[in-house]
Amino acid sequence: MFFLEPREKPQEPASWRDDDVQFPPVVVPSTEGALEAALQRVGALEFEVRRGAAEHQRMWSHISRLERQLGTLLASRLDQRDDLAGTRHCEHQELVRQTRTLIEQQVQNFARQYSDRTDLAPHRPRRERTAYLMSVLTRQLLDKRPASSWSIQQTLRLAEEPVTEAAINRLRTGCVELMERIAQAGLSHEWNYDHVSGEHLDRDRQEAWGACDPKAPVSFLVAPAYLVNGRVYGRQLVYTA
User: For residue range 215-230, what is the model confidence (pLDDT) as tens digits?
Assistant: First the structure.
């Protein structure tokens, strides 16, 4: 019989042995060191954020300043041209609306209330007499220097009563304030009263008052046109018959 001798286990290469492998030591940072590093990083980020915010604010301030300068320049250029609406032109357009409201409400209400208390144009029908009283009033009030309350009362041939004087004072005060705003708006402004009785309406600068027939000839002027730099911003109001 033959017996096989046991083989010896082959040895591993020297380079594979665990006891021969050299690993670098693991360094565990301390808690204090890690916290300090984190705080430094946070501080650096906060600094960058603050610097970016400051730069952002500076840029917006610069842009806003440029926009204001550009707006001022454009408004100045527009105000020098009559074919474009600049800032002051827009102010006059608003003042035209305020003037129209004053005439249609305050002046007309006063004329309706006092048309039967004056002997001005007694031969005219009541509606026409009211419009005629408005015509006299607007000439007294729509001026750079509106007539005094006493002068208006005398021109309208109204009795000297405290109630009448108070009503005229209120009306005159509103007109004085309007004249001041018109003067402050700048540009060349004027009231135009030119009209020809018996002629038909010039629709470019006139319109019929109230329920008057626009096809009928002009009888008299109720309120003047509002002109800015010679251009009609608000047309005349004329009574036709």
Answer: 999 999 999 999 999 9
Rounded Cα distance between 230 and 232, Å, is: 7
- CA count, 13 A, side-chain hemisphere, 57: 6
CA 58/CA 64 separation, integer angstroms? 10
pLDDT in tens, 178-207: 999 999 998 889 999 999 999 999 999 999
Q: Exposed, middle or buried by CB within 10 Å (0-12, 13-18, 19+), for 152?
A: buried
User: pTM for this structure?
Assistant: 0.63
Can you say whether the dihedral through the CA atoms of 210, 215, 217, 221 is positive or negative? positive
What residue has token string 């209330």? Answer: 113
Q: Which two tokens stand for residue 189?
A: 């402004």
Three-class SS state of 220? strand
Cβ-contact 158, 136 below 8 angstroms: no
CA atoms of 131 and 209, how far apart (whole Å): 8
State both tokens at 178. 């309007």
Backbone φ, ψ for residue 233 (5° rounding): -100, -30
185: amino acid identity, one letter: A
